[in-house]
């Protein structure tokens, strides 16, 4: 099965008129997108720090990271990019795909839309509760006895 490529414009968040456009291989096996350092330098994106990454041979290396706008398939996301060697193939990572509301399906070799999901079973901090100096679960969370008892107290 062959690889799928998508055209991505990489833009500098501080200077949005600065962009480089290239073909990126869709890759669900990496989280952050990988861009050759030369192209990031070209649009004046500078490293903001380093992170440790495990590479294909199992070794761990320190790599520079930065932030860029990634424009692809009609969507724009702000994400972390990895500064790679100049001869490295650009890769569109899973986080950029998901943040754009898309998922790469390797069986069909196409992107498909996915919904953005807020997990209703996890605590959600509400602004009114943070103002009171406490964090509570959302009133709309299913199976949330605390929310039910709180509503009863508030009602009366």
What would your notes on this structure say?
By secondary structure, this protein is an alpha+beta fold. The protein folds into 2 domains: 5-113, Beta Barrel (Cathepsin D, subunit A, domain 1); 118-156, no CATH class. It contains 4 helices and 9 strands; from the N terminus they run βββαββββαββαα. Strands 1, 2, 3, 4, 5, 6 and 7 form a 7-stranded mixed sheet that branches. Strand 1 (5-11) and strand 2 (19-26) form a beta hairpin. It is globular, with a radius of gyration of 21 Å. The protein starts with a strand and ends with a helix. The relative contact order is 0.17.
The CATH topology label of the largest domain is Cathepsin D, subunit A, domain 1
Count of distinct structural domains? 2
Give the uncertain stretches in residue-range form. Answer: 129-154
H-E order? EEEHEEEEHEEHH
Average pLDDT confidence is: 82
Strand-helix topology:
Blueprint: E1 5-11, E2 19-26, E3 33-36, H1 37-42, E4 49-54, E5 60-72, E6 75-84, E7 91-92, H2 94-99, E8 102-105, E9 110-113, H3 127-131, H4 145-155
Parallel strand pairs: 2-7, 3-6
Antiparallel strand pairs: 1-2, 1-5, 4-5, 5-6, 8-9
What labels describe this entry?
9 strands, 18% helix, two-stranded antiparallel sheet, 156 residues, 37% strand, disordered C terminus
Task: Write a short abstract of this structure.
With 156 residues, the protein is an alpha+beta fold. It has helices spanning 37-42, 94-99, 127-131, 145-155; strands at residues 5-11, 19-26, 33-36, 49-54, 60-72, 75-84, 91-92, 102-105, 110-113.
